[in-house]
Structure to design on (142 residues):
């Protein structure tokens, strides 16, 4: 039981968990097996997991762009929520980024995602109302 570093060999169980957690994923875009393989090989991404009795019940994708770190796809199996696993994954992501020399950790969340807002607020994350998120996408599945 606890934090583990995941590899591409865990891809199916990671996607299974994302589906159980109802995470909005891009299976034919940046969440495809091929895309995740490239991201892991880039060296700027780590996928951490939480296992319980051999079963994967939590994940977080930790990335950085050398200036800022990002918490992505934080997900906990609905049957294991409210046990602190989401918080443990956030702390593990922060420790990893700190060892990589990253001093700012950020997360993008949907406004209506109250659980994410709550868990991140409790972990000390604050919202800057003057910031808008802009992006340009190669395709809607990207
Ligand atoms: C967000 C999520 C990862 C939280 O995981 P978790 O393991 O339940 O989180 P924790 O147990 O560490 O929660 C810590 C605290 O956050 C708050 N919190 C967590 N979920 C909450 C909810 N649904 N509503 C209100 N507060 C919540 C509580 O204060 C909680 O402490 P408590 O259980 O003692 O009351 C989980 O709800 C999830 O997987 N959601 C779906 C996927 C998702 O939207 N991910 C975010 C993408 S960035």
């Amino acid at each position: 039981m606890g934090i583990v570093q995941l590899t591409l060999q865990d891809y199916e169980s990671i996607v299974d968990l994302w589906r159980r957690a109802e995470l909005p994923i891009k299976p034919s875009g940046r969440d495809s097996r091929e895309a995740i393989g490239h991201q892991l090989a880039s060296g700027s991404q780590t996928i951490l997991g939480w296992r319980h009795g051999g079963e994967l019940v939590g994940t977080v994708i930790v990335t950085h762009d050398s200036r800022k770190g990002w918490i992505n796809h934080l997900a906990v199996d609905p049957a294991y929520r409210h046990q602190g696993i989401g918080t443990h994954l956030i702390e593990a992501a922060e420790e990893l980024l700190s060892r990589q020399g990253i001093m700012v950790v950020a997360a993008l969340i949907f406004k209506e995602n109250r659980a994410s807002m709550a868990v991140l607020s409790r972990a000390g994350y604050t919202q800057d109302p003057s910031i808008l998120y802009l992006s340009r996408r190669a395709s809607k599945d990207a």
Remarks:
- The chain has one domain: 2-122.
